[in-house]
Design a protein that fits this description.
Length: 248
């Protein structure tokens, strides 16, 4: 907040860039009545869920994204000799509030979208959506952590991981069944974003499931999120054991 103008411009710039995605969606529905059987209001609702969970996950994990740089410069050792969790230190190593532009946009779109769709907002449904969105935040934090994990072996950050972080966010904004089988399996059984974004929307909007999974699939979000985060946590521990400092 020392440079308030810069801070506000960063938020505004982040907002404008991502607002283009919403415009693209609206332009798409100018030509097509529906997208895989979903109308524009329903896709906007799914879009908003993805934007909110991604922006929160990206903001929380911003410090973890600096781990490759810390390893290259030999600064990561400072984190390892302190009597505090290395991962917690990595998380708070850098805090960036510019992502609030996307968060504000996502929240605004979410508020608008829930007024446009017909959802029975019972206490159970509200709690269900809140839990699924928390799971979504956890998955994105874990995805950004994967880049840090790989840097223990490669030193440099692996930009290809962005195909699953930013790319995963883009895919989660649309009904999963419109994509090919490979993407469906990838974002359900390996990176379970489909279970925390797509299936909650299916459940709340009372849509049919073209993927043909059992009704219980709408509640797979919690176990698949725990499993995915556990695998990433195991990789993080292995990376810490692998780390041998800079040697100088």
């Amino acid at each position: 907040m020392q440079d308030r103008s810069s801070f506000l411009m960063q938020i505004f710039g982040n907002f404008i860039v991502n607002f283009a995605e919403v415009l693209t969606l609206l332009f798409l529905f100018e030509r097509f009545a529906n997208l895989g059987g979903w109308n524009v209001r329903e896709v906007l609702f799914l879009h908003a869920i993805s934007m909110v969970v991604f922006s929160l996950g990206d903001t929380i994990s911003n410090g973890v994204q600096t781990v490759p740089k810390l390893i290259r410069e030999g600064e990561f050792d400072r984190l390892m000799i302190r009597p505090v969790s290395v991962y917690v230190q990595a998380i708070v190593n850098e805090v960036s509030l510019r992502h609030f532009g996307l968060l504000l946009q996502g929240l605004g779109l979410f508020i608008v979208s829930i007024t446009l769709v017909d959802i029975n907002w019972t206490l159970a449904n509200i709690a269900y959506l809140a839990v699924m969105m928390l799971c979504g935040v956890a998955i994105f934090v874990a995805l950004f952590t994967v880049e840090a994990v790989l840097s223990f072996w490669t030193v440099n950050s692996i930009e290809a991981v962005n195909a699953f972080t930013y790319g995963g966010s883009d895919i989660a904004q649309y009904p999963l069944h419109i994509f090919g089988k490979t993407f469906q399996r990838l974002f359900l059984w390996i990176i379970p974003l489909g279970f925390v974004c797509y299936y909650p929307a299916v459940h709340l909007l009372e849509k049919g499931d073209p993927l043909g999974l059992p009704d219980s699939a709408r509640f797979y979000g919690i176990p698949t999120t725990i499993a995915f985060c556990a695998v990433v946590a195991f990789g993080w521990k292995m990376g810490l054991r692998q780390h041998r400092s800079t040697g100088s």
